[in-house]
Design a protein that fits this description.
Layout: H1 3-12, E1 19-22, E2 25-28, H2 31-37, H3 45-50, H4 61-68
Antiparallel strand pairs: 1-2
């Protein structure tokens, strides 16, 4: 890992108002900013709780997670 990435992670625990300082510069980080960067839908906690997991009874979720994470 580069030093910049390590500094980001080290300072992440001190984030204030979704802002982290790296090399003296302010970097905004929040779930909405990350989802915009990856062009992914941002699910709020309520939306996740409303998912009906019983629809996935026939799917082995452990195997699916291993596949998705390359494990």
């Amino acid at each position: 890992m580069t030093i910049v990435v390590l500094e980001f992670y080290a300072n992440l625990k001190f984030a204030n108002d979704d802002k982290v300082y790296v090399k003296g510069k302010e970097v905004e980080v929040s779930p909405s900013i990350i989802s915009k960067y990856y062009k992914a839908h941002l699910y709020e906690n309520d939306e996740v709780e409303l998912l009906e997991l019983r629809n996935f009874d026939t799917i082995d979720l452990d195997s699916l997670m291993l596949y998705l994470t390359g494990g």
